[in-house]
Amino acid sequence: MSLTVDKINDHFKTISLNDEWRFENSRSTYQYSHGYHRYPAKFIPDLVKKIIEERTDENDVIADLFAGCGTTLLEAKLHGRKSVGVDINPVAELITKAKITAHNPTRLKNVYDSILTKISLYDGTHIEELKKHDRIDYWFDSENKAKISYLFEHILDIENKNIRIFFLCALSNIFKNCSRWLQSSTKPQIDPEKIPQDPFQAFSKQVKFMLKTNDEFYSHLKSNGFDRIRCDIRMEDARRTSIRTNSVGAIITSPPYVTSYEYADIHQLTGYWYDFIDDLLDFRKRFIGTFYSRNEDLSTQSEIGDKIIKKLKKKDLRAAREVANYVNDMYDVIIEMKRILKPGGHVCIVIGNTTFKDVKILSSEIITELLLLNDFSIKEEDTIKRAIPVKQIPTIRDKKTGRFTTLESKNSKRVYPEEYIIIASNN
C-alpha cells in the first residue's frame, strides 16, 4: 500500500526496527578506499551496497546529491555502475576524488618513494614556512607547522593531478592528529595536555595504509573490467546541479542534519591549509539549512515541519529559523531530484530524527511529506527503520544550546539512535 500525506505520522509510529539493515559488525568502512579519510556521519558501505544490488540495474546512473566522502560513488564503481555526485564542501570533493580513483600500484609507490627521499633531506632550517591563515598558528605548534608545510610543498610539485590528490588526501587525514585539537572530539577545541603526533611519522603510516588498500581497489576494478567506469564528483549546490534532466536511474543519499554547518567547523583544518576557506563564517553559509541561508520567514511547504517550527519558536527564534531554512532547502533539493531522475527511477534517502532545544525534529517524516508533495510514491514497506550501532557522527547534544558535546557534560543527551531509509519512486 502506498503512503499518503495524511497517514505519515501514524505510519512512522508503527515501523519496527529491521535487523536486516543493522550491519552491526561491519568492517566495510575499511575496505578498498573507504577508509582513506575520517568523515562525520559516514554511510556504512554495506547499506549502500544492499540498495545498489536490490534497487538498481546495471545500466543505471547512480547519483548522490550529498556525496560527502564518496561512499555511494565508490560503491557504484565497485558494482560497475556509472555515477555522479555533488557536494558543496571542497574538502568532501577532495576526499571523494581520492577515493574513487584507483592508481597503478607501482607508479604510486614510486611517487611515495620520492616523497620519502625529500623527508630524509629535511633539516628543519632550510625550508621557509608557507604563509598560512592565523588559525593554523592556533591549532599547530611551529615545528609541526613547518613539517606539514614541507610535505604540502612537495606534494604540490607532483605532476599527475590524481596522484597529487591522493597524497593531499593522506596529508589532510593527519591534520587532527598532528594538531592541538582534542582528539576524541568533533567539536573544535584545544587539548592543552595533548602531545601532537609527528607529521612525518603520521603521514608515512597513513600513506602505507592507503597504498595497501589502493592495491586491492585497483585489482578489483581491473579484474572485473570496471576500471573505466565513469565516476564523477562535482563541487555544486544540491539545490542546483549541472546533472542532466532525466539522466539518473537512482539517487542514493543521506542529507545533512539540522545545523549542518558544523561540518564546516569539523573540516576547518583542511580548509585553512588548502586555502579552501579564509572566513569560517562565510564557509558555513554554503551549507544546507543554516541560519544565514534565507530570510526570516518561518513558513514551509511541510505541515509537519510547520508544527515543529511553531514549537521551536516558543523556545528559541533562531533555532526555529534554522529548521525552517532546512525544510525549505530540502524542498528545493527534492525538486532537483525530481528533475534529474528518469521516470520510474528511485530515490533512496537515509535520514535520522533528532532533538533540538528539547523539541523533536522529525526529519524522516518531513522528508517523506516533501517527497509525496512532489509526486513521488512511497510504499509503506519502503520506509525502513534501522538501529545505528556505529556511525561516525557526533551523537551527543547539549540540551540547552543544541550544540554537539560529550557525555561528561551535565546537559548532554544522546541523539540519532536510529535512522530511516526512505525509498520513493518517480511517477
Characterize the structure shown.
With 427 residues, the protein is an alpha/beta fold. The protein has two domains: 5-87 and 230-254 and 291-426, Vaccinia Virus protein VP39 (Rossmann fold, 3-Layer(aba) Sandwich), CATH 3.40.50; 105-220, no CATH class. It contains 15 helices and twelve strands. The strands form three sheets. Strands 1, 2, 3, 4, 5, 8, 9 and 12 form an eight-stranded mixed beta sheet that branches. Helix 3 links the parallel strand 1 (61-64) and strand 2 (82-86). Helix 5 (105-120) packs antiparallel against helix 9 and helix 8 (161-174) crosses helix 9 (199-224). The longest helix is centred in the middle third of the chain and has 26 residues, at 199-224. 47% of the residues are buried. The model is unreliable at 391-397 and 404-414 (pLDDT under 50).
Please write out the topology.
Layout: H1 8-14, H2 45-55, E1 61-64, H3 71-78, E2 82-86, H4 90-99, H5 105-120, H6 134-139, H7 142-156, H8 161-174, H9 199-224, E3 231-234, E4 248-253, H10 262-266, H11 268-273, H12 280-284, H13 303-315, H14 317-340, E5 341-351, E6 354-356, E7 359-361, H15 363-373, E8 376-377, E9 383-387, E10 396-398, E11 412-414, E12 418-426
Parallel strand pairs: 1-2, 1-4, 2-3, 4-5
Antiparallel strand pairs: 5-12, 6-7, 8-12, 9-12, 10-11
Helix pairs in contact: 2-3, 4-8, 5-9, 7-8, 8-9, 13-14, 14-15
Distance between the termini: 15 Å
- When the domains are counted, the total is 2
Helix content: 40-55%
Q: Round the mean pLDDT to the nearest integer and report it.
A: 90
CATH superfamily of the largest domain: Vaccinia Virus protein VP39
Provide the CATH top-level class of the largest domain.
Answer: Alpha Beta
